Amino acid sequence: MFGKRCSLCGGKLNSNGICTECGLDNNKSDKNYRINQSECDHEPLTHVHHGKNEKPEKQPKPNTPRQSWQGSTTTYSGNTGSTGSTGRKKSGKKKKPGRIISKIIAVIVIFNVFFGIFQPLVSDILDDAISGYQENTQDYTRSDPYEYVTKELPEDGESVSFELTSGDYVVGVHIPEGNYQADVSYDYDTVQVDDGDSGLYLYEYAGRTDGDYLDDLRLYNGAIVHISSQTTITLYSDNAQTDNVFYEDNPLAGQKPVTIKEDAIVGPDLPAGVYDLTLVSGEGSVDVDIYAEYGESMETKNLYLGENCTDGKEYKNLVLPKNAQITLDDNMELRLTPSEKVSTTDYYQYYNY
Length: 353
Hints:
With about 350 residues, the protein is an alpha+beta fold. Among the domains are: about 160-240; about 250-350, Jelly Rolls (Sandwich). Helices cover about 15% and strands about 30% of the residues. The strands form six sheets. The protein has a four-stranded antiparallel sheet, with no helix packed on it. Strands 4-9-6-7 form a four-stranded antiparallel sheet, with no helix packed on it. The longest helix has about 45 residues, at about 95-140. The protein is globular and about 90 Å long. It starts with about 70 loop residues before the first strand and ends with a helix.
């Protein structure tokens, strides 16, 4: 999800489309959010609200036909009053300009007096609020994400290094278990870890103002590592458990890649499976909506593919269950090639991490 900003606060979004700052679900259509709008926006300024069971009062009919008088620049209308010799309706008493000006001056004087008295008080309140906010911001420290993790990683293992493009990588399948460090090319290249078994969730990038754990990534078997990078991110470890790797061959191995140039549905347009996605031409967003077997929405993945886009031009190990929907921006062409390894062929279960 990285690359989009929250439509409410401008914060970063995780892969599920949830804002990491305010918690807003950005997967929902903007049409569901109406900010600074009123049901009266399109009503005339003179409209009146009535109760739920209250009917608007009927206006009494005039006893005389409605007349109108039009001058060269202004139109008047009414039912009562007298007319002069020219047939133009005489208006009521005119307010003298001197009275209007005196009222305006009085309002200005009162405002100046009021503002002069309360300005110091308002300034003090604003200063206290800003000072308190700055103190709270400075005192904030990120909690330790490993505080409640009880698993331990062996100290011994092999030294490994993986240069990874954007994609989803399962620990124990694509990456051996171990303690890793990450080298990133850009401040907003991200490493996200979802490990439900350990109760561990990380969203790390070098641009975090509250510190990052890119030099302390504890990856346990079964965790899913989401990489988002314009180019590649390098993971390396000195205690990788390379003997503890288990995977299945992709049932789709050997099949020809599928090329799509427009929106597609898994099942009718391509078989369910695990794919490596490559951008052939164009650039823009690729939205992948995952649905459970009986139609419930499970997850939405928002990818941004292109030369200078947040996910680069490749996305590895994209799991596509039946009925998943792929939505492309215009003028994009994608090639989907079956991935080499899969963690499971139960593609629905994959999204229950």
